[in-house]
Amino acid sequence: MTRTRLTAAERGEEVLDAAVVAFGASGYAGTRTDEIARLAGVSQPYVIRLFGTKQQLFLATVHRVSDRVEQTFRAAADEQTDLASLGKSYEQLLTERELLVVLLHGFAASAEPAIGDAVRERFGGIYRLVRELTGASREEAREFLATGMLLTVMAAMQVAGPNPITCGWSTELLDDL
Prior knowledge:
This protein has helices at 8-30, 33-40, 44-51, 54-79, 83-94, 97-108, 113-134, 138-156, 168-174. It is mainly alpha-helical. The model has no long low-confidence stretch (mean pLDDT 92).
């Protein structure tokens, strides 16, 4: 049986997949590049060769997750350009908890200047995209994003999304969303 050699770009994609899992589980400060390397099946020096530093790898991971949110919204808008369609599309992201938790870790690590700059830019880009795709007013976009953030936090707590842990308050809070 012969093994197919992957290109550096393909390996980089595998490392990013592993980084989503690892950073989602432990956050920026709590994740080590050797753990990401182990999950990706490569050496830690190879991870550094591909991404430079842990911070650069974290930033690439935040960009990947933000790209995924934007792609999801664009695909929804291709079908129908309203906030309800974008909101419905976000439900599929709720099934991928680690993606959303990476965003939360990015927000939490925003005191780090390079991370904060990138996270603020990407969140602003999502806000602008929502307005551009739907024609939503500032107020409508703010309410849409606030609801999305609530769902993101609740998915991180595992009270929303697939197989939620049932809590009376969470059921009540999510009732009309």
